[in-house]
Write a structure and sequence with these properties.
This is Nuclease SbcCD subunit C. By secondary structure, this protein is of the alpha+beta class. The chain has 27 helices and 17 strands. The longest helix has about 80 residues, at about 600-675.
Length: about 1000
C-alpha cells in the first residue's frame, strides 16, 4: 500500500486546509515528520487511520478530538486521502461527528459523521481541485464504505496500526512483558482466538457429555424404579430386576438388548394376566345384559296393566256426567251467538248518538253566522245560500291579499327613498375631498424621490470607505506594533550589551584562573611529594628543593567552575543576540509597513475614515427606509384614486335608484287608497272578508257532518238486522238477554272442552293395541326380576374392575418399560460420544498423557507464530547491534507462579554468550531491539494478511536514546526498507536526523494557537 496525497481541514491543531504530497516525499524513500511537542505530528497519523477506518490510531483515544478547536463555526472538518494498492487507486473523504453552531437561532447542533469513496482511473491527476469530477463512487454509507476500504487495503485497523505506525513504547512493553501478557497481545494481533475458542468449546462439550452420561444413568435408575412400582413387584423381584439392569450397564456391549430382555419378561407376564381378566369380564357382562332385558320387559308390562285400570275408571265417571255436559253445551252456544251480535248492537247505538250531536252542531253554526248568511232568500236552501256567500267573500279577499302586503311595505319604501337621498349627498362630499387630497400628491412624491436618490448615491461608496477604514486601522495597528517592537529592541540591545560584558568578564576570569593555575602547578606537584616517593616528573626519590604552594593557589574545580560560568554567559549572549536580530527584522518590516507618516497622522486618517463610513452606513439605512416609504406612498395614491373612481360609479347608481324608487312609491300609494273601499285600511277590509269565508265554511262543514251521521245510522241498523237473523235471535232484546260476562263464557268453554278431551283420551287409550292385547288375568312379578338384575350387575362390575386394573398395570408397565429401554439407549449413546470428546478436550486443553509439556493448542500456535516473529526480528537485530544481540524463544518459567506458555524470551549477548532477561537492556538497546521486534511483527502480520505490500511506513519517536554508531545502523536498516520499495516516515526530534534527512514535513504552531504544515521535498 502506497499513500499518495493527504488533505485535512479543521482537524486537531490545524484550523486551515493543508495537503501532504506523499508522492513527492517518496522520491527519496525516507522523510522526517518533525515539530515541537503537541504541534500535531500524531494528528497526521490519526488522520490517515481515521480516513481508512473511521477511528484514530490509538484504541483508547476518542474521535471527538479530531474537530479543531481553532476552526470557524462554518468550516467543515474533513480528511481526504488518496492511496494506491495492487487493485488500483482509491480516494476516501471522511468527516467526523462534531458540534457546530445552528444556522438558524442560537445554540449548537450535531454534524453527523459522513464518508464518500471513489476508485480512481490509472494515471488520474491527483490535484485536489480536480478530484471531485473523476472516479467511480464506491458508496456513501459508513458500513459499506468501511467494508470496501478494508477489502482494498487487506488489513484490519489493528493490523494496519501495527504495521504502518510502529509505536516504540508499546513494543518496548511487548519486549519486557511477561509470557502471559505477550500471549494476550499475540493472540489479538494474529487472531488465534479461534484456537482458544475451540479448546473452550471442546471442554464445554466434554462437560456436556459428562452431564448427559450422568443424566442418562439417573434416568435409567428412575425408569427402573417406575417399572418396579408399576408392576408392583415384591422386594425380591425388584432386587432381581435392578441387579439384572446393573449387570447390563456394567457390561461393555449389549446394554440395550439386555435391558430390553429384562423389561420384556415382566411385560409378557402382566399381558397374560390382563387377557384372562378381560375374558371373565366379557362373560359377566353378557349375563348382566340378559337380566336387564328381562327386567325392562317386566317393568313395561306392569306399567300397561296399571294404565288400563286407570282408563277404565275414568271412562265410567265420564259416562255418569253426560247430561250435565249437554246442558252446558247449549248455554255455551247461545252465549257465543250473543257475543258475535254484540258489536252490531253497539255500532247502531253509537250511530244514533252521533246523529244527534251533528244536528246540534248545525244549529250552533247557523246561530253564530252573520245575519245575511243565516237567512237565505225565499226559494233558496241554506246550503246553496251559504256556498254562494262564502265563494264571493273568498274571491274578494284573494284580490285584496296583494294590496295588504303593498300597504304594509309603504313605510319601508319611504325610508329607502330617504336613505338613497342621504347616500347621494355623502358621495358628492367624498368625491370633492378625494379631488382635494390627490391634488397635493405629485409634489410630495417628487420630494421623497429626490431624498431617496441622494441616499443611494452616498450608500454606493460604503465598500470603498470600509476598505479605506480597514487600511487606516492596519496602519494604526502597525504604528502601535512598531512602538512596542522598538521598545523591545532597545531592551534587547541593552540586555545584549550587558550579556556581552558579562561574557567578556567571565572569559577574563577563566583566562586569569587558568594562568594562575599553570603558574602554580610546580607547587601543587611538590605538595604531593613524600620523602622516598618517586617524583612523577623526574623519577627521583630525593626532593632537596621542593617548590612552595602559594597562598592564592587556584584548584582545578575553580577552573572548571569558571569555564562553566563562561559557557553559560556565552549562551546568554548568543540568545540575546538572536533576540535582537529577530526584533530588528520585525521593526524593519513594520517601518516599511507604516511608511513616512506619524502615528498621529495615522490616527487622524483612521478617525476621518470611520466618520465617512458611518455617513455611508447611515445612508444605507436611509435607503432601506425610503424605498418602502416611496412604495407605500405610491400604493396610498393608487388606493385613493381607486376609491374615488368607485365613489363616482356608486353615485351614478344611487341617483338612478332614487328616481325608480320615487316612481314606485307614488304608484303603490294610489293603489292602496283605491283598495280601502270605505274601510280604514286595506287590511281591515281583508280581515272582514276572511271572517265571512270562515263562517260559511263552518256552517257547510256542520251540514256535511249531519248528512254523514244520518247515512251511518241507516247502515248500522241494516247490519244489525242481518246479524240477528244469522244467529237465530228474533229481536235485539233477545240477544241482549243471551249475553253473559267474559269470565262466565270462559268457564263454560273450559268445562265443555275438558269433558270432550278426557272422553277422547280414555277412549283412545283403551283402544291402543298394547292395552287391548292384555289378558284380563295377567300378573307380573317385578320384584324378582329387579333382584336378579342387581345381582348380575354387581358381578359384571366386579369382573370389569379386575380387568381394568390388570390392563392399567399392563399399560403402565409397558410405558415404564419403554422409558427404561429409551434411557438405556440414551446411556449407550452418551457413553459412545463421551470418549472421543474427552480425548480431544484433553489434547487441545493441554492435558492427557501424550502432552508432556501441557501445552494447549492455542499456546502451541502462538509459540510457532512467536518463533516466526523472533526469526524476522533477528535478521535486523544482528545488523543493528553489530552481531552482538540475538533473540531466542525460551520454554523456561520466569517465576514459580507463571504458567508454562512457551512464550518466554531471552536475549543472547554474543560478547559473553550468556542469555539475558530483556528487562536488563539499556534505554537505547531497548529501543532498537523493540524496533526490530516491531518490524519483524510487521513482516509476519503482512505475510499472514496474504503478502500485502506495505509501501508506506511510519516509525515513531525513540531515536534520541541511541548513540551515533547505533543510530547509523538503525538508519541503515531503515534504508534497507526504503530499498525494498517502502517509503519510510521517521517521527523524531533528534538533531542528527534533521541534518541527515532532507525531505520532511515541518509542523509549527503559530502565535495565535493553530499549527501550520509545510512539505519540503526534492
Amino acid at each position: 500500500m502506497h499513500l499518495r496525497t493527504l488533505t485535512l481541514q479543521a482537524i486537531g491543531p490545524f484550523a486551515g486546509r493543508h495537503t501532504v504530497d506523499f508522492d513527492a516525499l517518496g522520491q527519496a524513500g525516507l522523510f522526517l515528520l518533525e515539530g515541537p511537542t503537541g504541534s500535531g505530528k500524531s494528528t497526521l497519523i490519526d488522520a490517515i487511520v481515521f480516513a481508512l477506518y473511521g477511528k484514530v490510531a490509538s484504541s483508547e483515544a476518542s474521535e471527538d478530538r479530531l474537530r479543531s478547536a481553532y476552526a470557524a463555526d462554518d468550516t467543515e472538518s474533513m480528511v481526504d486521502l488518496v492511496f494506491e494498492v495492487p487493485s488500483g487507486i482509491y480516494r476516501v473523504r471522511r468527516t467526523p461527528a462534531y458540534q457546530r453552531a445552528k444556522r438558524r437561532g442560537s445554540g449548537t447542533t450535531t454534524a453527523n459523521a459522513s464518508v464518500k469513496a471513489w476508485r480512481l482511473p490509472a494515471g488520474a491527476d491527483l490535484d485536489p481541485a480536480t478530484l471531485d469530477s473523476v472516479g467511480v463512487p464506491l458508496g456513501n454509507r459508513l458500513d459499506e464504505v468501511g467494508a470496501e476500504l478494508e477489502k482494498a487495503v487487506g488489513l484490519s485497523r489493528t493490523q494496519f496500526v501495527q504495521t504502518i505506525v510502529l509505536p516504540q513504547g508499546e513494543f518496548a512493553h511487548f519486549l519486557r512483558a511477561k509470557p502471559e501478557e505477550r500471549a494476550k497481545l499475540l493472540q489479538k494481533i494474529f487472531g488465534t482466538e479461534v484456537y482458544e475458542r475451540l479448546a473452550q468449546r471442546l471442554a464445554e462439550l466434554r462437560r456436556e457429555s459428562d452431564r448427559a452420561t450422568a443424566a442418562a444413568r439417573a434416568a435409567l435408575s428412575s425408569g427402573t424404579s417406575q417399572l418396579v412400582g408399576a408392576a408392583r413387584l415384591s422386594d425380591d423381584e425388584a432386587s432381581d430386576v435392578r441387579a439384572a439392569i446393573d449387570t447390563a450397564v456394567a457390561g461393555s456391549t449389549g446394554l440395550v438388548a439386555a435391558v430390553r430382555a429384562v423389561v420384556g419378561e415382566r411385560t409378557d407376564a402382566l399381558d397374560a394376566w390382563a387377557a384372562g381378566a378381560r375374558a371373565a369380564a366379557v362373560a359377566a357382562d353378557a349375563v348382566r345384559r340378559a337380566a336387564r332385558t328381562h327386567l325392562d320387559e317386566s317393568t313395561a308390562t306392569h306399567a300397561l296393566l296399571r294404565r288400563r285400570d286407570g282408563l277404565r275408571a275414568e271412562r265410567a265417571a265420564l259416562d255418569a256426567a253426560a247430561d250435565m255436559n249437554a246442558e252446558a253445551v247449549l248455554q255455551l252456544t247461545a252465549a257465543r251467538a250473543a257475543q258475535a251480535v254484540r258489536p252490531l248492537l253497539l255500532g247502531a247505538e253509537r250511530a244514533a248518538t252521533t246523529l244527534d250531536a251533528a244536528r246540534k252542531t248545525v244549529t250552533a253554526a247557523v246561530d253564530g253566522a252573520p245575519a245575511d248568511l243565516a237567512a237565505p232568500p225565499d226559494g233558496v236552501d241554506l246550503r246553496s245560500h251559504v256556498q254562494a256567500v262564502g265563494r264571493s267573500a273568498a274571491e274578494e279577499a284573494g284580490a285584496l291579499a296583494r294590496l295588504v302586503d303593498v300597504e304594509a311595505g309603504l313605510e319601508a319604501r319611504r325610508r329607502a327613498v330617504r336613505r338613497t337621498r342621504h347616500a347621494v349627498d355623502d358621495l358628492d362630499a367624498a368625491i370633492a375631498a378625494d379631488d382635494q387630497w390627490l391634488a397635493g400628491r405629485p409634489p410630495a412624491r417628487a420630494t421623497l424621490a429626490a431624498e431617496l436618490e441622494a441616499a443611494r448615491t452616498l450608500a454606493s461608496v460604503t465598500g470603498e470607505r470600509e476598505s479605506a477604514l480597514t487600511t487606516a486601522i492596519e496602519i494604526v495597528t502597525a504604528h502601535e506594533a512598531l512602538a512596542l517592537a522598538e521598545r523591545s529592541l532597545a531592551e534587547a540591545t541593552a540586555a545584549r550589551t550587558a550579556a556581552g560584558a558579562a561574557a567578556l568578564a567571565a572569559l577574563g576570569t577563566e583566562r586569569d584562573l587558568r594562568a594562575a593555575r599553570v603558574a602554580d602547578l610546580a607547587g601543587e606537584l611538590a605538595s604531593r611529594l613524600d620523602d622516598g616517593a618517586a617524583c612523577p616528573v623526574c623519577g627521583s626519590t630525593e626532593h632537596p628543593a621542593k617548590a612552595v604552594l602559594g597562598a592564592d593557589h587556584v584548584s582545578a574545580e575553580q577552573v572548571e567552575q569558571a569555564e562553566a560560568e563562561r559557557v553559560t554567559a556565552e549562551k546568554a549572549l548568543h540568545a540575546a543576540a538572536e533576540r535582537c536580530s529577530v526584533l530588528d527584522e520585525r521593526a524593519g518590516a513594520l517601518r516599511a509597513r507604516v511608511g513616512g507618516g506619524s502615528a498621529q497622522d495615522a490616527t487622524e486618517r483612521c478617525d476621518r475614515a470611520r466618520s465617512a463610513l458611518a455617513q455611508a452606513q447611515a445612508a444605507q439605512a436611509d435607503v432601506a427606509r425610503l424605498v418602502p416609504a416611496l412604495d407605500a406612498f405610491d400604493v396610498q395614491t393608487r388606493t385613493r384614486e381607486a376609491e374615488r373612481a368607485a365613489a363616482v360609479a356608486r353615485l351614478a347608481g344611487e341617483r338612478a335608484t332614487l328616481e325608480v324608487t320615487l316612481l314606485d312609491l307614488d304608484a303603490a300609494e294610489a293603489e292602496v287608497v283605491a283598495g280601502r273601499a270605505g274601510h280604514p285600511t286595506v287590511a281591515a277590509r281583508h280581515s272582514e272578508l276572511l271572517e265571512r269565508v270562515a263562517s260559511s265554511t263552518t256552517v257547510l262543514d256542520a251540514l256535511a257532518d249531519q248528512d254523514a251521521a244520518l247515512d251511518e245510522l241507516g247502515r248500522r241498523q241494516a247490519e244489525l238486522a242481518v246479524g240477528l237473523d244469522e244467529h237465530g235471535f228474533r229481536s235485539a232484546d233477545e240477544a241482549r238477554d243471551a249475553a253473559v260476562d267474559a269470565a262466565v263464557l270462559a268457564e263454560l268453554d273450559r268445562v265443555v272442552t275438558a269433558y270432550a278431551t278426557r272422553l277422547d283420551r280414555a277412549t283412545a287409550g283403551l283402544a291402543e293395541p298394547a292395552v287391548a292385547a292384555l289378558a284380563d288375568d295377567l300378573v307380573v312379578d317385578l320384584d324378582a326380576a329387579t333382584t336378579a338384575e342387581a345381582a348380575a350387575r354387581a358381578e359384571a362390575e366386579r369382573t370389569a374392575g379386575e380387568a381394568r386394573v390388570a390392563e392399567e398395570r399392563s399399560a403402565a408397565v409397558a410405558v415404564a418399560g419403554d422409558g427404561v429401554v429409551a434411557s438405556a439407549t440414551a446411556l449407550a449413546d452418551a457413553l459412545g460420544t463421551a470418549g472421543p470428546v474427552s480425548r480431544l478436550a484433553d489434547l487441545t486443553g493441554g492435558g492427557g498423557g501424550d502432552n508432556a509439556r501441557n501445552l494447549s493448542l492455542a499456546t502451541f500456535v502462538l509459540m510457532r507464530r512467536f518463533e516466526d516473529v523472533v526469526a524476522a526480528a533477528n535478521e535486523r537485530l544482528l545488523v543493528m547491534s553489530d552481531g552482538r544481540f540475538e533473540l531466542v524463544r525460551s520454554d523456561e518459567k520466569e517465576d514459580v507462579r507463571a504458567r508454562n506458555t512457551g512464550l518466554a524470551m531471552r536475549v543472547i549477548d554474543h560478547r559473553t554468550e550468556h542469555a539475558r532477561d530483556p528487562r536488563t537492556l539499556s534505554g537505547g538497546e531497548t529501543f532498537y531491539v523493540s524496533l526490530c521486534l516491531a518490524l519483524g511483527m510487521a513482516d509476519v502480520v503482512t505475510a499472514e494478511a496474504g503478502g500485502i505490500d506495505l509501501g508506506t511506513l511510519f516509525v515513531d519517536e525513540g531515536f534520541g536514546s541511541l548513540d551515533p554508531h547505533t543510530l547509523d545502523a538503525v538508519l541503515t536498516e531503515l534504508g534497507r526498507l526504503r530499498a525494498g520499495g517502502r517509503v519510510v516516515g521517521v517521527v523524531s526530534h533528534v538533531e542528527a536526523l534533521k541534518q541527515s534527512i532532507a525531505d520532511r514535513i515541518e509542523i509549527r504552531p503559530t502565535a495565535e494557537g493553530p499549527s501550520t504544515l509545510t512539505v519540503r521535498a526534492g
